[in-house]
What does this fold into?
Amino acid sequence: MFTARDLSSPVEAVRDEYVPDVRIVDCERDFETLPPAQAEELGLFADALEPASYPADWLPADAPKLLARYASSDFTVGMPGDGSVVWTRQTDPPTVIVKPRVEGSPEPFIDFLLAEALVELDLEVPEHFIGFFEEAYPDLDRAVALDPNGTYQVAAALYDGWVGLQSREVFADWHDDHPELADAWQDAGTQLEDRVSGLSRAVARGETEFADATELACAAIKHAIELPAPFAALDTDAYRDHGPEYAIRWAEKTFDSLAD
It folds into this structure.
């Protein structure tokens, strides 16, 4: 199911600097969430497995089944929206997992995704948005006027944006020490700029669902791209400092304005 991944020199340098004990593996198949039987195979690369679990009252009654399963005591790794590279601290030492769907992507971009995972591990941010919102997630659920899957997508995006506010400060300092990765970070941002600049108009015209727009805008935060309203309010020190409380207030104000 998993094999150790050979790393490029730029990624090896970041690993050695930020999380030298991490295990980086390729997965033989794509996944959203690894069920316990397959996730436990990560034990072949780790000294111990430490499954995470969260209180049931942190979840709304209509939370998606995958989210409820992830929050339970089952050992599951990965969730929808995690992307092509997943990291977990449910193994000791932590593990980074590369999905097959990265095949065909430019190597510098894959290297950046790996480096991003290593930086996020070093930042010690929660593994999933439920660890970010904690008991306040039902408050976000009430603020977001979407179905449970749409709310999940918005929550995952908001968490991604909050992490991006922190990780981009690291990436911006890489031009001297990790120039190849800094260039890949900038190139990925450049490719997003046109899509992001027209988001508000696309939502207003019904061409883009609000949850999809939030996902794209929040993904762009890590690349320091200028965001249109209402997403620009997330690209602030206030969001970085106040996290879930700020995100919920943003959702309340945004969905109130959409309802007008």
The longest strand covers residues 23-27. Residues 148-171 form the longest helix (24 residues). Residues 2-259 form one domain.
